[in-house]
């Protein structure tokens, strides 16, 4: 399988077009942030940029996949890796900055799963994280596994966030209380059936909607502690 890498393609701008790759990516990112699903069409993007034909955009981004790659790599630029303090602070900062980023740009989680991280910003993130793992003398697969464990937590949490937001928008739900009220009739039928007593007991507990004991940062620390067992093994 060949991957068409947009970063090796030089844009061919025309003097009559007030476009640049940077302007296109910035506009596409803003549009994705405005849409609950994060979907961006070339026609909508062209309209936002004041361009008559969407075809003009392809000279700068190559294809729809090329635009997705550029958007994802733009957002990778917000991820941070603490340097010089050891592998654990490095991966913790990668996780916390990544979570802050996907909360601002939830659609990024989808692109991170579907597009290869081969852009300059993504490579810089991986390179910095791997550099902090280098002193551990772990096998290459283990070093990348450490990085991907943290990023998997980031992107998995981000994907859950964007899907939840999409579901809420589709159903007209604005809060967890609205969701609980919408589900109440169905939960009552489940309780009446008597088939799932432990689930029904949980559903009847008035404290079930309080914050769970495990948030993103807590789970991140659990993951880092688990990875540490491989370091000292």
TrEMBL record:
Domain Tetracycline repressor TetR C-terminal stretches: 84-230
This protein's record includes keyword Protein biosynthesis: no
One Pfam family per UniProt: TetR_C_1
GO biological process annotation, one example: negative regulation of DNA-templated transcription
Keyword entries, A-Z: DNA-binding, Transcription, Transcription regulation
SUPFAM superfamilies named among the record's database cross-references: Homeodomain-like, Tetracyclin repressor-like, C-terminal domain
Entries under InterPro entries matching the protein: Homeodomain-like_sf, HTH-type_TetR-like_transc_reg, Repressor_TetR_C, Tet_transcr_reg_TetR-rel_C_sf
Signal sequence range: none
GO molecular function, one term: transcription cis-regulatory region binding
Keyword Signal (UniProt): no
Protein name stated in the entry: AcrR family transcriptional regulator
The species this protein was found in: Actinophytocola algeriensis
């Amino acid at each position: 399988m060949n991957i068409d890498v947009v970063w090796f393609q030089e844009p061919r701008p025309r003097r009559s077009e007030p476009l640049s790759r940077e302007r296109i990516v910035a506009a596409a990112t803003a549009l994705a942030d405005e849409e609950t699903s994060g979907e961006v069409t070339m026609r909508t993007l062209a309209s936002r940029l004041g361009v008559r034909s969407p075809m003009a955009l392809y000279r700068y981004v190559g294809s729809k996949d090329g635009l997705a790659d550029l958007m994802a790599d733009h957002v990778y630029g917000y991820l941070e890796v603490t340097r010089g303090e050891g592998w654990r602070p490095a991966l913790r900062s990668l996780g916390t900055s990544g979570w802050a980023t996907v909360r601002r740009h939830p659609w990024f989680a989808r692109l991170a799963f579907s597009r290869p991280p081969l852009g300059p910003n993504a490579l810089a993130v991986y390179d910095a994280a791997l550099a902090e793992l280098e002193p551990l003398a772990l096998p290459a697969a283990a070093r990348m596994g450490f990085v991907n464990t943290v990023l998997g937590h980031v992107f998995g949490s981000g994907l859950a966030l964007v899907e939840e937001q999409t579901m809420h928008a589709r159903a007209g739900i604005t809060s967890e209380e609205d969701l609980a009220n919408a589900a109440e009739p169905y939960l009552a039928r489940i309780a009446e059936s008597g088939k799932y007593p432990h689930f029904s007991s949980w559903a009847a507990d008035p404290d079930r909607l309080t914050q769970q004991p495990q948030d993103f940062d807590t789970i991140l620390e659990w993951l880092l502690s688990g990875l540490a067992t491989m370091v000292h093994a």
